[in-house]
Design a protein that fits this description.
Number of helices: 1
Order of helices and strands: HEEEEEEEEEE
Structural class: mainly beta
Largest sheet: 8 strands, antiparallel, barrel
Shape: globular
Distance between the termini: 36 Å
Strand content: over 45%
Length: about 140
């Protein structure tokens, strides 16, 4: 009986891990969001279908510019990302960490700084950015 209980707990933990990085997450302060599926890597960027299915992307509401997640490696509640802007001129490595069921933290690592359009200018995003999961 104890073995069955352990297996059930293990299955539930595995199920939670398999959905941690399949999400729509949003940062209200900078009006940016990420659509991600690091498991099936089947995210298609609206208006940029030419890139095909990908692990995900980061974008700002109201424009078509984005940062593409070209590679994602998941290890528990942390994912190592390689990202490039949609023109291919900037790239970086980053980590995305799930703190709990609804909160994620993106940390920019080596490479370029993520910039998004804001009032006809490029706005640099901070090195650490918190996102909240939305349905």
């Amino acid at each position: 009986m104890a073995l069955l209980a352990c297996l059930a707990v293990g299955a539930k933990a595995q199920q939670a891990d398999s959905t941690a990085f399949r999400a729509y997450i949003y940062n209200n302060e900078y009006d940016v969001y990420m659509r991600i599926n690091f498991y099936e890597q089947d995210v298609v960027i609206p208006w940029q279908e030419l890139f095909g299915p990908l692990p995900g992307f980061l974008a700002k509401n109201g424009n078509s510019n984005c940062w593409i997640v070209t590679d994602a490696t998941v290890d528990g509640r942390k994912a190592e990302l390689e990202m490039v802007n949609d023109t291919g001129s900037d790239d970086l490595r980053a980590t995305l960490t799930q703190l709990n069921d609804s909160t994620y933290v993106l940390r920019q690592g080596s490479g370029s700084t993520i910039k998004v359009p804001n009032n006809n200018k490029w706005q640099k995003l901070p090195g650490t950015l918190t996102f909240i999961r939305r349905k």
